[in-house]
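User: quick one
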Amino acid sequence: MSTFNLIAESPLGVFKQFCEEGKLAYQVTPSGQAVFYPRIVAPQTGETLSWQISKGEGTVYSTSVIHLKGIEPYNIALIDLDEGFRMMSRVEEMPPEKVSIGMRVKMKMSKDKEGRALPVFVQGDSK
Amino acid sequence: MRGLKSASVAIVGAAESDLGLCAPGTSPIDLMAQATLRALEDSGLKISDIDAIFSASTQTRYTTLALKEYLGLEPSYHDNSHIGGASFMTHVAHAIMALEQGLCKVALITYGSTQKSVSRAAASPREYNPYETPYSPFLPAAAYAMAAARHMHQYGTTREHLAQVAVSARQWALKNPVAWEKTPLSIEDALSAKMVSYPLTVRDCCLVSDGGGAILLTVSDRARDLRKKPVYVLGVGEALSHLSISNMPDLTVTAATRSGPLAFNMAKLGVKDVDVALLYDAFSINTILFLEDLGFCPKGEGGRFVQGGAISPGGSCPVNTNGGGLSYCHPGMYGLMLLIEATRQIRGECGRQTNRRL
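Assistant: Done. Structure below.
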């Protein structure tokens, strides 16, 4: 049974609110399995999910540098967070081609084009 | 797919529409109608024989309704299932079910796109994903680029291996009169081409084409009385994996690891029985992943498998004999073009495109 009240809040709305507070939120099942992206019930079981705040530390699962006309090449990456979930993001504050698979990264709350909080990553301390 | 009978249904007509760059104002349904008429001519059937429509499109959402209206069909069965470029393989499986059950007698599967004319952005607008779109991931190229990067990291695959896939496709395309690309391509050309999403250059990425096609299917008993040699559908397999790339469990393992065995088991055939493989090459890495996931080579060996021209004309494992999405035609959703080429290969109609083994 879902305890989510979609009249009051949405999974995305909660996630974004946490972002505005500088926090990278994810969900966990009753048995502690991490779930991302946020949803109203756990996949496969339909169990209730609870919110957790990630430490924001993870590893680059894969990475690419996108070359588009008229803008500087930029990074896109999939990050495996230490808590056991994966998300798309960017690794910033370093040349995009220097981002490598297996590199340790940490979350930094940045801003999107509209000025809303957007989690990106920067190089982190090796484990 | 248990329950469907191998060879109960055959492809009896197959045709492309005009391909490449169409006259201004051409609609996707114009292309579908043109291909359908050509497929009818190929089969000896009449337009009024069609009583089932299968289609999917990014440009015209209610595709089967649009076709019904345009061609004046009165279908007893229809299916607008949309799972991306492989939709048409799914339509074949669903058409077999409908034909076996007597829900229809002649099934049309058709597709058309004017994405080169109207631009890819206009033809295939992406749905907003709040967990991906803010990062401007330039999909689908970057998704396959990250799969390629991961494959290189795990298995030692190189950019030269990827380039070889593009070169092999080009060699086949040069034998196909209707292929878009007309000039030879070398490994060096492919490696030095404009970078799109590292490690993929523009030569690792499919064409952006106008075009489409149509195939017609009917039960095997009726197929034998038609114009061309029936192309029996021996096996089908379907598997759904993920929608967003951040939810693909392992970027180096495709859903073909599940759909492939379903199709081979239904057909009671194996990889060793395959003379020509038609693998959806939206990007060069795809060919490598599918060669592995279908069992043409061990996992991780796809790059080394293609090195030296195994999948080129004259090679031991001919792949994408039409020139592929990389060099022949890629009208946004490419799956139907593979089914058309497969039909022609099995009929022995491909002339210069055939391999020495055939």
